[in-house]
Fold this sequence. Notes:
single chain; 670 residues; mainly alpha; Neutral endopeptidase, domain 2; Collagenase (Catalytic Domain); 4-stranded mixed sheet; 3-stranded mixed sheet; 26 helices; globular; binds zinc ion
Amino acid sequence: MRKLTSIVLLSMALAATLLAQKSGxxxxxxxxxxxxxxxxxxxxxxxxLDRNPIPARQARWGTMSVMTERxxxxxxxxxxxxxxxxxxxxxxxxxxxxxxxxxMDTAALxxxxxxxxxxxxxxxxxxxxxxxxxxxxxxxxxxxxxPGMLVALPDLKNSKQMIANIGTGGISLPDRDYxxxxxxxxxxxxxxxxxxxxxxxxxxxxxxxxxxxAAQKVMAFEKELAGAMLTNVQxxxxxxxxxxxxxxxxxxLTPDFDWKAVYRLFSLPESTPVNVSEPEFLRKLNAQLxxxxxxxxxxxxxxxxxxxxxxxxxxxxxxxxxxxxxTVLTGVREPLPRWQxxxxxxxxxxxxxxxxxxxxxxxxxxxxxxxxxxxxxxxATLREELEKAGWLTPETxxxxxxxxNAFYAKIGYPDRWRDYSQVxxxxxxxxxxxxxxxxxxxxxxxxxxxxxxxxxxxxxxPPTVNAYYNPTMNEIAxxxxxxxxxxxxxxxxxxxxxxxxxxxxxxxxxxxxxDQGSKYDADGNLREWWTPEDRRKFxxxxxxxxxxxxxxxxxxxxxxxxxxxxxxxxxxxGGLTLAYRAYKRSLKGKEGPVLDxxxxxxxxxxxxxxxxxxxxxxxxxxxxxxxDPHPLPRFRAIGTLQNMPEFHKAFGCKPGDPMVRPPExxxxxx
Length: 670
Ligand SMILES: [Zn+2]
């Protein structure tokens, strides 16, 4: 026995030594013909990018897309087994199997044509006066077809409490600016959009000329709504979205709309406070109720009904939806394989039921342990950085450290899984099954109003390859899906893990102190906790990043909107700085090893750039520049590293090199 134990121990020790030596850098992924100080992104990932062109089914492709598809393959295994499981299978397994099977049965979808959406279309047709329209808009709060939806959100100034929130909605293009921009590409998209709406009406059985007229009405209606919405930069200011009132207040804003009936629909007490994120929008909506002819309202509602259902109807609807939403807007050439589409649908609708199977099979407990260590090391490092930050007054410093200490870290998956017993799934009723799940999800969300916040709630499902910071909960979350190679590699040397997942952790922590997050305190309340002097200095730092991204040439004369991407860019800069210092801290004064010919610092930065080995189709890149608060992946790597003296030192870059911003212009968060 003793001998056996020692052999086992010895072999484990050997294995650990061998594993610790894995550099985690793959030379074939590099492009040595490109100098690291010229374009580090290309140097670090050029080989990989050349071998991995964007597939016809995708708008962008990169390291994280490969991880996403790997997870989807795993979901496929789970779902195919669930679909084949016998009557003894657990209820949630049967539900995901049935929904997947229903989704895969495209022959059944094709045979039903537009029958699934017929009941909603009939409801719309039956409306004969303004009161009927009002009642319908209340009813459509449940299925999401109403503009200005009521949802549950924490009170921004009393974040422990969930209240009602009325947002904006009802536009079909990606952002309000798409209705107004004058550049040729935007004009072309509007033309294509009108054609698309027209085609959908033709599929609904309208004659061509009526369909064309209807499409013009839809465009005009949505343009009015869009004109009353804040721009995506204005929306970044949480104070611009905070207008808490009571039911009487919201009724006064929209005298022609029956919010009392919406409260009744969701069984909310009339004393429930509500935040109206954009009062101007509600005023406009109210004006539309009386100024837009009833027939035009009905036309628009029919369009929204068919648009939201198109992906679940017969092939002509699915194809037309794909043509506009994917090909015109993002340049995608062919649809996702059906099984991928269906795995996504189950993930979106029965996320906890699928997620619990995913983590049971593919998320080892060691991952949680290792992630917790990394998070805590970054937290301790940031605490040290804040405490020695010379530019902050002691008062602001104290508040910043309190906020950092209160960061709540979620790793992998929720502690409790949701119960879907209210959802009815039938293999021969795909559309109705999805609607049942959506309605149940909607009621579940609304049921949170009036209660304290629930830490068990996640904003992403477990297989998701992403992470987030939620300012009102003051929490950072890392779904199981992102905790896998190459971002998180239990077998690789620390340098690459700090450069990849460490920078992601740092990025999410950085959001706690970005242009938006810095306005929330340790409890997640919207409150100014910076002294005016410190706030001014902070804004100088953010202005540096805004200026940098406004001026980065991304090709074809295009630029980022610095004010739109500043939060993400600050997260990247603060996050990478923090991850680097945390890595150094973990070495406790020792030198990191040289592996595969790279120093530890070099591997750290190579791993960071590899995370952003990702390319968009030109159409998708333009869409993102207009709407996405994240800079394009290539510039997340380049823009961040241009500001990092530690990177310049690791690769011997000199002032004047493209990867070095002039020292006096280098931006710094901490
Ligand atoms: Zn972010």
